[in-house]
Amino acid sequence: MGYLINGSDHEVDDEGYLLEAQLGDDVPAVIAAAEGITLTDAHWTVIRYLRDAWREHGHTPNFRAMLKEIAEIDPALDNKALYDLFPMGPAKQGARIAGLPKPFGKGGY
């Protein structure tokens, strides 16, 4: 399985994460549509945050760090709002829709 984005096939792992990060603006729309999510401005706030964190640190933050840092960007994006946006888990589903590789689990593994 993979995603066809702008005529190019992109491979995914067994959980649907892209094997290589794809940061084009078309990528989240394709992956979100496959997961039944219509992107809003709030989704894009989270996607930009996750992409910036990935560029800066080489991985995305865990949910606790994400919750704290994203509240500084938009206080309306609290725990409930993030789960409303990404019901399968904001840190994991958000990273997947952002076009990023699988996030580390607890403990950084």
Descriptive terms for the model:
single chain, about 110 residues, mainly alpha, two-stranded antiparallel sheet, 5 helices, about 50% helix, globular
General description of the model:
The protein is mostly helical. The chain is built from five helices and two strands, in the order ββααααα. It has helices spanning 26-34, 41-57, 63-73, 79-85, 90-97; strands at 2-5, 8-11. The longest helix is centred in the middle third of the chain and has 17 residues, at 41-57. The chain is globular and about 40 Å long. Keywords: Cytoplasm. Belongs to the DsrC/TusE family. InterPro entries: DsrC-like_C, DsrC-like_dom_sf, DsrC/TusE. It comes from Sphaerotilus microaerophilus.
- Extended strand count: 2
Query: In DSSP terms, counting alpha (H) and pi (I) runs of 4 or more, how many helices?
Result: 5
Shape: globular
User: Overall mean pLDDT score?
Assistant: 92
Report the C-alpha radius of gyration, rounded. Answer: 13 Å
Instruction: Detail the poorly predicted runs.
Output: none
SSE order in H/E notation? Answer: EEHHHHH
Q: How would a crystallographer describe the biggest sheet?
A: 2 strands, antiparallel
Overall helicity: 40-55%
Organism: Sphaerotilus microaerophilus
InterPro entries: DsrC-like_C (IPR042072), DsrC-like_dom_sf (IPR025526), DsrC/TusE (IPR007453)
Protein name: Sulfurtransferase
Subcellular location: Cytoplasm
